[in-house]
Fold this protein.
Amino acid sequence: MDLVTARARAEKLREEINHHSYRYYVLNSPVISDGEFDALVDELRALEAQFPELVTLDSPTQRVGAEPSAGFVKVAHPAPILSLDKATDRAELRAWRTRIAKLLPADTPLSYTVEPNFDGLTVVLHYHAGSLTLGATRGDGHVGENITSNLRTIQSLPLRIPCAPGGPQPPDTLILRGEVLILLRDFETLNQRLLEAGETPFANPRNAAAGSLRQLDPRITAQRPLFLYAYQIVTADGPAPESQWETLAYLKALGFAVAEDVNRRCDSLEAVSDYCAALNARRDSLPYEADGLVIKIDDLPLANGLGTVGGRPRGAIAYKFPPQEATTRLLDVEFSVGRTGVITPTALLEPVSLAGVTVSRASLHNFDLVQERDIRTGDRVVIHRAGDVIPYVVGPIRDLRDGHERPIVPPEVCPSCGEPVAHPEGEVAYLCINAACPAQRVQRLNYFAHVMDIEGLGESTAAQLVEHGLIEDPADLYTLPKEAWLTLEGFADKKAENLLAAIAGSRERPLRRIIAALGIRGVGATVAAVLAAHFGSVAALASAPPESLAAVEGIGPLTAASIRAWFAREHNRRLVAKLQRAGVRLAAERAAPVAGVFTGRTFVITGTLSQPRSEIAAWIESWGGKVTGSVSRKTSYLVAGENPGGAKFNKAQQLGVPIIGEDELRQLAGAT
Ligand code: IVH
């Protein structure tokens, strides 16, 4: 391809990729598959590798590319970032309007735009000729820090606008503001991931977002699920909307995420107040943390004309939700064991009402945090609750101590199985390392069912299965007969049948699913997908030497070591073998000529073959077949190599069991 053609193709690819990222990350409604999307990015990467002169800073391949920096450079903002006056009820909202009305001609009609007051970090974004050229933190409101490389990694932040074909052409210079935050569901996942990697989870989404944005290494930022909502235009050297409501629509048309689920235009202050009350009632269903709402005079020239008082604009006010914090007594601490054996403390509280819900348990995150904040049993503590997630203990009120408080110490033995607890050097985690620990079994089973998408198998069913001794590991699910299910509480015919069908259906999940479902530390959905694509089968992954694991992009030395350690354990290898025998797909689809072609067939091997018998046996098992040691009526085939053993050979002839060679075996699988 010549440079001119390549340039045109690269441009076209960027346009398409930008559009599909926007559909995926911002609109949450992709119109192509992940695979098709990856193919576009791969093609662009290949083109840029071949013609490096075509790489542009705003290319979607450049989201992560910058080297770690030694520090952040200061940048002056084009206009100061102010704070807002606050209101907590209808009367205060009315007082605000009265103050404004006095400054305006009598009976000036006012409309308002209501938006979430995001609890994130304000950022200022500069676009020139449609490309992101600078992104800065709020700083002290006048001077912030240049964090462009970190902001580039945020998938919902457009590197070039407009994102969608047919979107409005932005003015040459466009400077806008928005808030960077972590959505509540992503926060949960992030903390889970950190916990499993033995790292300290974040106390709340805002801390997580702040810590991630101010990373000197953008590669770390790129791994954090940051999200951007846009809400304000600071400067535009061309036509820009004259109302806040239209501004939001315009930002959306350019390809920014705006809080459409909340944003609303109201024509009276009464409507604003009603809307505030309605939103307060459903604040738990918001996908992010919000302190309340921001109410803005919709007419922007009018709002700006009102000026500021005490450094706060008159044209907008923050309506604060009633606090989601409460104080109560920490009565006791419960220790629970996760699937990887990590022991986490949960606070048992004197029940307290918090934002309309009675709270009696709260997360203490981990023992490091407990120690750092010096939280003790018997303390009066502040608890915080956001969304539907479990509330957490913010910290103790030290002034209210009477000396009866007791430090919280990690347990010495596992609360489930009683085995000694380990605390590996340099790790935050306290671990139960007994693989047979019932609590871990329950959690592993629950996790397996979740990842393999086995509908109807939740934690309580998993607990029953383990308690009744019906299941040792997840592979047993595939052989558990209906009668066994029927012995469980609450299981009638229909429910058992549905579960059996769901379990059977899970045999055919894509390879990345089963790799994730194994529950290897550090191998979540993303890493599992990388491993599946690279190795193509569980067998190949199991036998990969550490250096080839660590050479895979996206796999660090810790994860590589964790994978090796997992497969080194007898117990885990047995699990894989059992899954194989149960007919669970352990190889990528394309590597399998006919997946499960040997399911239901039994083989016996004799004589010398081209590979060790164990290898041939593993191969047969990978196609769903079973390998046994002696010939019987149930044997489907005797696979005979050179110098076959007389006994097996004779028995097969006697029983009429077909005797085949290695080539025929491979033909049977359709592998030749
Ligand atoms: S408009 C005078 N809109 O929260 C500044 N700000 O509580 C008005 N914030 O300083 C800016 N969500 O940093 C605006 N929807 C929103 C916001 C928002 C969060 C930030 C902003 C502001 C502070 C005010």
